[in-house]
Amino acid sequence: MPKTNKEIETxxxxxxxxxxxxxxxxxxxxxxxxxxxxxxxxxxELLVAIxxxxxxxxxxxxLTKEDFxxxxxxxxxxxxxxx
Length: 83
Prior knowledge:
83 residues; 5 helices; 0% strand
């Protein structure tokens, strides 16, 4: 299981690339999710991927809207939740 910010960020970028049908190189971890093209359906897909990849129970995780601003902020929050 990925443990560092960079490892988690890489997994998130790959998951979003699959969800959006893009190449991972086209996904910037510091861009707002809305700018990447994440809509409500793809957001749900991302949530499922987070639970699957990191074993987080999202309803119990305490993640906030701000945590989902960018993939980088999300990776930082996931690292904090995994410690």
